Structures are given as structure tokens and as C-alpha cells.
Amino acid sequence: MSMEDKRQKYKAKQNECVLMARVSSRDQEVEGYSLPAQVRLLKDYCLRKDLAVLKIFQISESASGKKQRELFNEVVSYIAENKANVLVCEKVDRLTRNFKDAVMIDDWLEEDEKHEVHLVKDSLIMHKHSRSQEKLNWGLRVLFAKNTIDNLREEVDKGVREKLEQGWLPGKPLVGYKTVGDSGHKIHVPDPQMGPLMREAFELYDSGNYSIKLLVKTMDEKGLRTHFGRPLVKSQMHRMLSNPFYMGKMTWKGRLYDGKHEPLITAELFERVQQRMKRKTTPKYAKHNPVFKGTMRCAECGGTIAWETQREHWYGHCNHFKPCNQKAYVRQEAAEKQLLKEFSELVSPSPDVIEWVKVTLRTKYEADMEARTALKKQLKDRHSQLGRRMDVLYEDRLDGRISVHQYDKMQQQASNEQKMIAQKLEDFEEDYLAVLEKGIDILDLSQKAAAIYESKNDTDRRAILRDLFSNIRLNGNLIEVERSPLVAAIAKKVKKEKELRNTFEQTVNNSLTEEEFVNGTLSPLWLGIIAEVKHLMISSPQTAAYVS
Ligand SMILES: [Zn+2]
């Protein structure tokens, strides 16, 4: 390839761009603001600017928020994968709909000085070295775009509130109801077919002869259908039975409103059904927060793993704030299952040894404390001695017994030593007993983690994760953990212990008893853990993390 060819190729590469068109549902009603019109505008621009279009993305805001986010992420990953340098868009508010998007675009610009965002109608080209004035301009437009969206949301909220105050539920009707009336004056009335069936569902459940599961099956046979013509699933049935709309009330964002609609059931029936549902075991999905909230990161980009519910289960995935190829959605239960395996690797086959380690730790701690108290006294004595010396030095200096130079030098020495001692004394003030207890707690926890994890609530689970692991990452469907220092040491010992135990049990002419094996072989092995806990007690930065 000649130099000229290379240059041509490089040039061509540099001029490749991706178009992104986006319209809101409101835009679509106005002529000239359709997606095709926007794409035409962008294409014309590219022609003028000699930009080769690699791909055109079109995002319509009539799509769900989730779908829109996916599309935007697709745009960003497409650009990254195909190494396009230019992204062309109509205006800032077409490009970014939220700060997340804006930050992603900003990161991309910062990544490479060849990267550019062309905002056709804003007459703005953004790149890494944009002038500060342009950056400010961009920043303001991002802010403005956000503000426009917030305003829209407020307007929607206002409309929703007004409708609620008037006694009508905004949005789609519930199963058993249908919508009548013109646009802007729509109300919900009982559906002649589904209404009575929904009432029957309440009555059957109230009889006490039906579980939700059986009720779902029975109502399916009787012909109860959602608005999409599908039978209700268990979670839907549960939601319907819990919705006070059926007795004439409405809930919206946690607030209860009086409804003007015709109720299908009485308040008494509704109340009885609630009581009966409460008596049943709480459904296993009734968790408000995912266990791993804020504790897991993407192995590829380091982003926080975001959790969302789908069909009563939590699913985690990379938040894709930064371009990242991780696509997996991992179910919380699947992640927990992998953790249980991690826990099992921390369990010593000899509970006796663990007990021995704990006792030894406490004994050693007491001995240490005696030594430390003695040392502390020595340091304090030395500190006051230095103070007295400095007083004497000062008098010597005044009386001319030593020169200014000598005084400065000696005074400095004494003062430095005093500062050092003060620092050491401060270190002593740390709560070493708390560190020891924390060390012992973690040792205990490591042995019972699986059981505690399975029996306790989510708060305890999070505490376990926090204490045992310094990092939890999601890589594809796999959970990767980084153990905290003490836990890493425990895992190492357990592994070694299992090897030793294997050899011990396979030795045919075994003259050792289990007790002798534990005392003679395992105890020395586990002595290392004592050193680890003591290390925690000595090294203050890590100590702080454990004490808190
Ligand atoms: Zn990621």
C-alpha cells in the first residue's frame, strides 16, 4: 500500500460517522418533525461535510423508557465497536435525554481527540479540545435538555394529580373494568363480562378454600382474562386482590384517593381478603431491595451493577454508564448460589481447630496488652523527659551556656522525637479490643456464613458480604469475589487443611489419632491466622476499616 493509499484509508476512516435521530411522541404529531424528516436533515448535513454514514439509529419516544435506553446504549457500543469518530445528531436534546447519557457521551469525547459530536441545528461540534466557551455551551444545552424533560414530567404529573383529585384513575383500567368516554374525559366502568368474574375471584378467595395458585387455575377456567386476552398469572392475581380500587379507592404513588368509579366489592370483603393473604406465607419475592444493591461491580468497566425486577425476581446487569460489552442479566438467586460455593471454601473441616484459634487469640491478646501497657508507660515517660530537656535548653540558651546554633539543633532534635512519640501514643489509643473482636467475628462468620446467609434477612446478608469480601464483580454470568485480607488467609488455611487431611486419612498405617492430628498438624497450620488478626491490630489503615 502506497503512502497515498494509506492516507486515503486513514482519511476515510476519520470521516466515518453514525447518525442518531430521535423524536418525542409529541413531535410526531407535528408535521416536519417525523423521524424520516430528521434523518433527511442529518444525511444532507453529512453530504455537505463529506462524512460517510456507517449506520443510522432511530429512536422514537413512543417506545418504552427501557427500550429507549437500550437503543441509546446500542448507539454508544456501536460507535465504540466500529471505531467511528463522529456522531451526528440534530440537537442536544435529541442526543441526551438524561445526565447518564450525557456523561457517557462526554467520556467518549474525552477518550480520543478524534471523537466528535456534531449537533446540526445547534451549529456545534464538540470534541476533546473544544474551547471552554463551547464546552459551557454544550453543558448548558445538556442542562436545558434535562430541564425540558423535567418540565414535561411535571406537566404529566400535574394532569395525573388533577385526575386523581377528581376521583378518577389515570391510565389503563384494571382487570374487570373498561374505559369509556372521549380523550381527556376517560373514565373506568365495570366490564360486563370480566367485572363479575373479578368479584367472584375475591369471593372464592375469601371462602378460604383457595390458594392463589388454585384461584388462578379456577378463574382461568371460568374465563377471566386480562385486557390482552391472557389468563392472569399468580403475581397478577395477587396484585389485583391487593388493589383497593375494587372497593372504590385508588392508590397512586403511595397515596390513597377516593374514587368515583363503581366498586366491584365491599370494603369488608376487601379487608377479609387482605387478612387472609397476610396469613399465608409472605411471598418470597416481597423484597424491597436487591441483596447486592451497591455491592457488586461490572468486571469489565467497573460500573455498578444495576438491579431490576422482572417477574418477581431481581436481575442484575452492568449499568452501562461507560461503553461496555457485558450483556448478561444475572438473577439474584443464581448469584447467591455461586456465593454459597464461595462460603463453603471458608469452612474448616475441624471446628475444634477454629475454637482453639479463638482461645489462643484471646490469650495472646491479654499477653500483648500487658506488654503494650508497659510500652505505653515508657513512651509517656520519654515524652515528659524531652519536654523537661527543652526547658533546660532554653535556659541554657538565655544564659549563654550554648550557642544559638547549638540550641536550634538540639531543640529541633528533641521536638522531632516528641512528635514521633505523640504519633505512636495516638496509635495506641485505637480500640484494639474491638479489632480483636472483629477478627474473631469474621472467623466465626466465615465458618457459618452459608447458614447465616440462608436464615437471616437481607440486612444481615449485606453485612456478611461486606465483611467477607472486599470486592464482588459480575463477569458474564459469573460472580468473582475478592476476599478481604483475613478471609483470604482463612480460605488459604482451609485449602491447606483439606490437603493435609486427605493425606492423613489415606495413610494406611496411621498411628496418629484425630486429636493428635489436630494438635500436631493443624494447630501449627492455623497459627498463621493468629498472625493475620494481629496484623489487623497493628496496621491501622486496615484496622480502621474493620473497626467501623
Ligand atoms: Zn460494564
Give the averaged pLDDT, no decimals. Answer: 80
User: What is the number of strand segments?
Assistant: 15
Largest sheet: 5 strands, mixed
Our measurement of the CA-to-CA distance between the termini, rounded to an integer number of angstroms, reads 64 Å
Spans of at least 5 consecutive residues whose pLDDT stays below 50 are: 281-286, 539-548
Helix content: 55-70%
> Please, how many domains?
5
Q: Which molecules are bound besides the chains?
A: zinc ion
Strand order of the largest sheet: 2-1-3-4-5
Structural class: alpha/beta
Count of discrete alpha- or pi-helical segments spanning 4 or more residues? 19
Morphology: extended
Query: What is the CATH topology classification name of the largest domain?
Result: Rossmann fold
CATH architecture of the largest domain: 3-Layer(aba) Sandwich
Oligomeric state of shown chains: single chain
Work out the radius of gyration: 35 Å
What amount of the residues lies in strands?
5-15%
Q: Can you tell me the CATH superfamily of the largest domain?
A: Resolvase, N-terminal catalytic domain
Quick structural gist:
The chain has helices spanning 3-14, 25-29, 35-49, 65-81, 92-95, 99-111, 132-165, 194-206, 212-222, 234-242, 267-279, 332-344, 351-398, 404-428, 432-455, 458-468, 485-506, 514-538, 540-547; strands at 16-23, 52-60, 86-89, 116-119, 124-127, 177-180, 187-190, 249-252, 255-258, 296-298, 305-310, 313-318, 330-331, 469-475, 478-483. With 548 residues, it is α/β, with parallel strands linked by helices. Helix 8 (194-206) packs antiparallel against helix 9.
